[in-house]
Predict the structure.
Amino acid sequence: MQTIQIDNADIEHLINSEYGNDTKSLINDFMIFVKHRATFLKNKREFNKIFEDVKNGIEPLYNDAEYENRMSSFRANLANN
């Protein structure tokens, strides 16, 4: 189990006014935030890798089916997060 200490009066006030004593909702929303952030960072790393490859003249070699599969996966990932 992890413990997070918040030493910021503005954030503490926001949490208290939004959640009060409802720790279950606070934990649930925090877990959703962490999942979204992790997904965002993963997508950002993948995008940056592809961008750098293209910038350096290395084009990704995708056939039509692989491209469609990657795009479908990317769109589904965005929709679920």
Observations:
- Residues 23-55 form the longest helix (33 residues).
